Amino acid sequence: MIWDILQQINPALIGLVFLGATSGLLVGSIPGLSVTMATAILVTVTYSWTIENAMALIMGLYVAGVFSGAVSAILINIPGAPAAVITKLDGFPMTEKGEAAEALWIATFQSFIGSLVGLFLLAILAKPITNIALQFSPLDYFLIAVFGLTAVGALTAKDYTKGLISAIIGLFLSSIGREAIMGTARFSFGITNLQAGINLIAALIGLFGFTEVLTQIYRGSYSAIANKAGKVKPDFKGALKYLSLSIRSSIIGTFIGALPGCGGPVAALISYDSAKKTVKNPTRPFGEGAEEGIVASEAANNACVGGALIPMLTLGIPGDAVTAVILAAFLVHGLSPGPLLFSESPELFHLILAGGFIGSISMLILGITVVPRLSKVVLIPKKILLPVVSVLCVIGSYAVNNSIFDVLVMMIIGFLGFILKNYDYPIAPIVLALVLGDIMDPSFRRAFAYVPSIPKLFLSIFQHPISLILFIMIVISVLSNFKLIKNIFAYKN
Fold it and tell me: 292, 400, 412, 420: which one has the fewest Cβ atoms less than 10 Å from its Cβ?
């Protein structure tokens, strides 16, 4: 296998992968310009290329693009992608403490480790992991989304009750629009544009970008984000002290990534929750600048690269939005991913792995040479930075669908976030509930279609091993927050 991968490496491959990685970093660092969008553009540009050259460019963009969402999350508190919402919980507090460069280095190296582990597991376990993923029923997808919601305690350092309220708001927002099974419009109030639902990217930019602008203006805070950006040389030895957490988070990310529709946000949330419960002596409390929080999030969401490719390559089922676009690239070039790919075109599988590994190295090089220079943005006074961020919010939300309505949604949700933030309601659970709601609702409806009775549906959990394991994990997660639950009742009384 190693020799087969090495045979695919040549100067042209390296150059194309590095070009793709550079493009992914630059595009993904701008809120609203997603790696999915960039990949879709590349497919149209490369349709006349050979499949080998097209895949080399796309793999570089994919690997670096997933990481790049952490850059804006750490520097200006606006996640460049939904998966980076978890990264910002500890990344931005480090920036406010003058440790932006250090936070970016941790994110870079852990994304590198996560990518390597995900691709390694893709190479050796693609078929077994796919076979396990195929056993997941609609009920299992519903349970894994519920499990993600039970982790909301990991996102609420101060008040679990307010965290749950924020999550409920997110679930409500996710229910707006036509439901996936019957196509019935919900909470659209006759507004045609709302029937498509709330655009996740517009909500993300509104909740973290526009909310932050309004908050800083309200507080009259116009000084720079931090009085120093920090200067940290690549410390590989220091980074390796988190190796066990990195590998554990990467394995979680790979497996979650192999479940179609879950992806980086779910993987990062579950990995972060696991780290918060198992790391005994973090560098700082989680949510206040813990390095372990960045490690868990970035290792998990970049491991999803390898995980999402597993069902796409073995079954032709995309694991996330980017692999759906990559699947289109295969079809454009007359190839059909599936079980026969490994026997009929093994060299293409090896080329994708080679592109992924070179992309990981390219991402590390860019993270060492280019990304630290971006940390200087935290020294810019907010009276200059806030107007720039406001413009980026408008451009980013408009660019998704070329829709003024999305800009309006961004502003309205940003104003909602501003109100919630001023009353100390956490914002992150809203975004995670938006993501999980899109999994929970259709999964529950499909499960209920098979067993149209709530008692029978509950009993079916105990008849399916995967459902039972997930149910036990949910119970454990709830019990681990027992003190938080007690606080809810104390709060009410």
Answer: 412
465/284 Cα distance (integer angstroms):
38
pLDDT of 148 > 90? The answer is no
The single-letter DSSP state of residue 5 is H
Tokens of 260: 């179609």
> Which structural domain range is residue 365 located in?
2-492
Q: Do β-strands 177-178 and 185-186 pair in parallel, antiparallel, or remain unpaired? A: antiparallel
Whether 440 and 262 have beta carbons less than 8 Å apart is answered as no
Q: Are 267 and 300 in contact (CB under 8 A)?
A: yes
Residue whose pair of structure tokens reads 């394995």 in the numeric block: 251
For residue 248, pLDDT beyond 90: yes
Residues 6+ apart with CB under 8 A from 50: 333
Q: What is the pLDDT of residues 289-340, one digit of tens each?
A: 889 999 999 999 899 888 888 877 877 767 667 777 777 777 777 777 766 6
pLDDT of residue 472 exceeding 60, the answer is yes
Q: Which residue has the higher pLDDT, 15 or 455?
A: 15
* Among 383, 433, 24, residue whose Cα is nearest residue 200: 433
Overall domain count for the chain: 1
Q: How far apart are CA 484 and CA 488, in angstroms?
A: 7
